[in-house]
Amino acid sequence: MSVKLKNIPLQYANALRRVCLNGVPVFAIDTIDVIENTSVLADEGLAHRLGLVPLKTDLSRFNEPSKCKCQSKTGCSNCKVMLVLDSGDSDATRTVLSDELSSEDSSIKPTSEKIPIVQLAPGQRVKVECHARLGRGTEHAKWNSSNISTLIETDEEDERILTVESTGALSPEQIILAGVDEVSDKLDEFKKMISQIQE
Question: Over the stretch 100-130, which tens digit does the pLDDT of each residue have?
Fold first, then answer.
């Protein structure tokens, strides 16, 4: 999605671009309990692959762990979602895809069903329990809400084009609107800090 920004100072437009890239919270798999893994991929490699699978996100229903009322390290149903992957036994070589990840919440699931996770030979099996939470790209790239966020100057004065390409976790429109809210909140925080220094 591309939006035209008019009469907005460059620093604010660029702040919005950066927030759209890695400042809007989205779901990603954070921790994994490996129950069985007889594939050639090490547990750490499997965890890394699963963490990079983009997940559809519902910001209206879930909280970031730091802002959740439970304040628990293990999380609760308002800030954490469990997904399970069980490949079962196979008689032939096959690729385990993201559609085999089953979620306890139907709204939090992979953005695509065809993302390869691991290849299994006959007799190999993978069974894991994954815990996903909201996070931001400033913490790790797996929480980036968009693939691309660019700001281009136009021929018109004080006019720029902001382009956002989503990972699928949120729609580009949701990313931009949430980005505007994030920039506004950060400006309010900055004003409070400045006023406290002046006092």
Answer: 999 999 999 999 999 999 999 999 999 999 9
Examine the domain organization and report whether 17 and 30 are in the same domain: no
Closest CA to 22 of 136, 133, 134: 136
Each residue of 126-151: pLDDT tens digit? 999 999 999 999 999 999 999 888 99
For the residues of 89-104, what is the DSSP string, one character each?
Answer: --SS-EEEEGGGEEES
Distance from C-alpha of 118 to C-alpha of 169, rounded to nearest angstrom: 22
Identity of the amino acid at 43 = D
Measured CA distances, 193 to 118, 154, 185, 188, 198 (Å):
48, 35, 12, 9, 9
Q: Show which of 89, 109, 138 is a domain's final residue.
A: 138
Q: Which token pair is 130?
A: 């994954």
